Amino acid sequence: MTARDTDWDGVRLHVVTGKGGTGKTTVAASLALALASGGRKVLLVEVEGRQGIAQIFDLPPLPYEERKIAVAPGGGDVYALAIDPEEAMLEYLEMFYGMRRAGRTLAKMGIVDFATTVAPGFRDVLVTGKTTEAVRRRGKNGRRVYDAVVLDAPPTGRVSRFLNVTQEVAGLARVGPIKNHSDLVSGVVKSPETAVHFVTVLEEMPVQETLDGIAELRSAGLPAGGIFINMVRESLLPQATLDSAVKGGFDAGEIALGLKAAGLADGAGDASAVADALAAEVVEHARRTELEKTERAALMTAALPRYELPLLADGVDLTGLYELAETIGAKGAA
């Protein structure tokens, strides 16, 4: 494996959260590829049952097992696991009570689903427990099985409760296997080996939800990581032009003259109509750029590392994932 300069040296569990529509799963998948580059082995975990990992890697639905799904740049493997809470509970029953066969009978009766519904904190312990077990797991040679684990976590509004398992199960059990299991999970989640990263776009609501999520995370004593600013569009106009457009001083007549000089308009009326439409686009672009500048400044108040990822013109496909992974690595996030 090649040495690398990363902002998250020592972190082995990367939790990725974000408001819906910000590209949370895309960033999680790209981060896993970046972390695996250079000969590493990384596990990408999904907990929401949406089969988002399968979709983004163009694969059939993933079963409840760890399987290799991609080769990282420069060598290295990405494995994936779509956690099923029912299967996780059966593993739990076998691990602590030796009841896997009886557990399957309970599952058929619907008791397992009932238990995880009336006690959502227990459900979260099961899925986070499976993830943290992968972080701790060692092979026969005594080495860690995975160099890093990336968890595609629930959205920002729920991530603190999802990770704060000790508090969530406090009302369920104060002693015994459930309490011991939650303490073990919490020990990993709240350790320096874990970082919770936020994905956002430069819009008011996602940025505010990100800031609220970071504050809630810190209040719960959970480790805030970095902020991935996704789908960033570069401005193609000089700052002076943008400033002029925002102030309403942009001259559409200059565009009309340019269009006629370039032979792109047949007559004066034609050039004027096209110029007005283009001028409106410039003003809209300038206003959006100004708003994005404001949102960037708001994100700076969180005092966390920030990583800007470009908007992919052709959309997110496998090629796009590798492009984003390269960007993530180049910016020092992996």
From TrEMBL:
Gene3D superfamilies: P-loop containing nucleotide triphosphate hydrolases. Residues 13-170 form the ArsA/GET3 Anion-transporting ATPase-like domain. Pfam families: ArsA_ATPase. GO terms for molecular function: ATP binding; ATP hydrolysis activity. InterPro entries: ArsA/GET3_ATPase-like, ATPase_ArsA/GET3, P-loop_NTPase. Transmembrane segments: none annotated. PANTHER family: ARSENICAL PUMP-DRIVING ATPASE ARSENITE-TRANSLOCATING ATPASE, ATPASE RV3679-RELATED. This is Anion-transporting ArsA/GET3 family ATPase.
